[in-house]
Amino acid sequence: LNASPVAGAGRRITLLTDFGTADGYVAALRGVIASLAPGASVDDAGHDLEPGDVSAAAWALARYWQLYPVGTVHVVVVDPGVGSERRPLAMEALGRFVVAPDNGCATLVLAEVVAARVHAIDHPAYLRHPVSRTFHGRDVFAPAAAHLACGAPLESFGPSVSDAVRLPMPVPRTAAGTVHGAVVHVDRFGNLVTNLPGDLSAVLRVLEVEGRGVGPVRETYTSVPTGHVVALIGSAGLIEISVRDGDAAASLGVGRGAVVRGRLRG
Amino acid sequence: LNASPVAGAGRRITLLTDFGTADGYVAALRGVIASLAPGASVDDAGHDLEPGDVSAAAWALARYWQLYPVGTVHVVVVDPGVGSERRPLAMEALGRFVVAPDNGCATLVLAEVVAARVHAIDHPAYLRHPVSRTFHGRDVFAPAAAHLACGAPLESFGPSVSDAVRLPMPVPRTAAGTVHGAVVHVDRFGNLVTNLPGDLSAVLRVLEVEGRGVGPVRETYTSVPTGHVVALIGSAGLIEISVRDGDAAASLGVGRGAVVRGRLRG
Amino acid sequence: LNASPVAGAGRRITLLTDFGTADGYVAALRGVIASLAPGASVDDAGHDLEPGDVSAAAWALARYWQLYPVGTVHVVVVDPGVGSERRPLAMEALGRFVVAPDNGCATLVLAEVVAARVHAIDHPAYLRHPVSRTFHGRDVFAPAAAHLACGAPLESFGPSVSDAVRLPMPVPRTAAGTVHGAVVHVDRFGNLVTNLPGDLSAVLRVLEVEGRGVGPVRETYTSVPTGHVVALIGSAGLIEISVRDGDAAASLGVGRGAVVRGRLRG
Questions:
Q1: What is the pLDDT of residues A153-165, one digit of tens each?
Q2: Per residue in B213-222, pLDDT tens?
Q3: B26 contacts in chain C (CB < 8 Å)
Q4: Distance (Å) from the alpha carbon of A69 to chain C's nearest alpha carbon
Q5: Which of A22, A34, A138 is nearest residue B188 as measured by Cβ atoms?
Q6: Contacting residues of B for C95, CB less than 8 Å apart
Q7: Which residues, other chains included, contact A227 with Cβ-Cβ below 8 Å and sequence gap of 6+?
Q8: What is the DSSP secondary-structure string of B122-155?
Q9: Which residues make Cβ contacts (< 8 Å) with residue B127, sequence separation at least 6?
Q10: Chain B closest CA to A4's CA: distance in Å?
Q11: Fewest CB within 10 A of the end CB: N or C in chain C?
Q12: What pTM value is reported for the model?
């Protein structure tokens, strides 16, 4: 598939999975890639995601997929439906590739890039045989990523797909001077990422989460004393609720799905 | 040891340890390798194994060692006997190398490859001096791996070893239409890996674990409703007992060593 | 910044952070580096440090920074003051570079190397714009590291700094035949690293931690039976208190800051 002396040379593949780091499953993916695309370099994007937490995978992937150079292949294996009829997908968006099960892992990529090209993976030449029923990371997604890194054309993997699964993404709504949103992600620091865009902070007077006052959106964590709740524009461009030097999810006892309300100026 | 412009170029080393990722111990191994074999690429195969859990290391290693290309050096540092008289070993099997303490980490490699060549590591040229009493990962196994990656011949590391330590591996036995096995590994999803070969599923009527019925071996997780127990042929080719979208070890309250029994057809 | 065909080729960057591996934050740093210095190789030195634990970061960094070859760029992002006035720093010591917030992460590097050169990072050409208030790992430290790896001179990053923050490091003191020290670090095995230098073991009769006897300094873990407390010279050259095949911090109920006392001979 590649005329270069070392297959995949100069190409990069990232791995995001809910495998633990202790079981050797991640290394199985890496071994398959090392055999098929020895020139590619492989980054651990993240592991130990909550088992089966497709939404967390979608949020994590959104943090980095565009930061990598054109040509990078991002693999996501959070795959509770492995072995069932759910399709494996390979897609291209802004020159990067994503290889993932068709379960919503790529929801935010597809939301950001309307012109993404999505194909099912079913060409036998791109699979590892025999394909197991329980480990498509090793037998489907890793080999597909390696072949993409070696230059195999996206179209050759299988038929075009126009109905890839997308997770429902709650959209904020405004009524009577109040904006209603939700916590959409909680990170390991306990930061509560909301679906309220950072731009909104200019017209927001105060914010509350599950009825508890958070105050206005501030500039930095150090705008409040240690242990206090603070709202900020987070690194994803969304309003986040944090506790300075603490864990907001634990302190406030709230998590993904919590109701967020903001009072608008004027 | 190597005439190439960059020592170790094109070679791959993997690291499996019970070090946490937070202490800097893994990076100490990587730093030693980067200094001795700057051209080699180093993969984290797995870390954060249960401290001293040699059996878990043996199972994890079995998941990936053959998937890597010929020439790969697999380092395993789960080493409760560090500093004692236990030998450090370097071995070759099917063209891959394993560097590990002589405590059973390589049990499954040695079970799979009768013709493995095993040597003790004691040549001073391959050690980092002074060799500490508590950190052979840094002072013995990492430098040995780097020298192997740079082409040092296995025989030069030390004397041949014919009595490498192997963990006892329980073997299933059959009596009166029943096969008796055991859970030999539990992964981070709580899947119970048994020592019953997948081939057995053709003649197995039903399975039970610690007296609790599991039913027949199914095709995929989705063969049962969410939360139900299901037996499958796992990715290692062994029968595994899982809970769909759940954790079988936690749900059933069983772990490594649990008794598994299967009723045979006819 | 670099005339080589692939920017950063042959250079190495390490990452030590308190990011979890599941959030995609580490991959954001890697993506930024891959875009700016595609030829550099990036090692995970450690992640999942206790959030904001600058002291743990300083100890972890000390385990490996000198083991890497000259030219390596070590990135540390444990940064509870992100977005405040604390400076981002780039420094050079013994030919290696460290990029970190000015909060004490580099305390042990600066203690080991008097002649370290330290500069603030404020040249806009080395930052990712817009610079967020909450994620300098992505917007300040990763791009600075990439530019260093590509050969940008340290002096060009910003003004020289002579007052970098250093953590207070407790120093052992001796009085009336007794040496008084402290536990300065606890690793994932529960080993208690003290500030007593290993050399002291020659003149130490017995050791105690928080009033509990530990005995003399021994050669190896296996000098005592399983489950017993043992003092050793650890891999950092300091006296450590361990439990053979166990967790000293948990068994003894002590942690960082615990009082250690040794009776001297004669």
A1: 999 999 999 999 9
A2: 999 999 988 8
A3: 44-46
A4: 5
A5: A22
A6: none
A7: A243, A244, A245, A246
A8: --GGGS-SSPPSS-HIIIIIHHHHHHHHTT--GG
A9: B121, B139, B140, B143, B144
A10: 14
A11: C
A12: 0.95
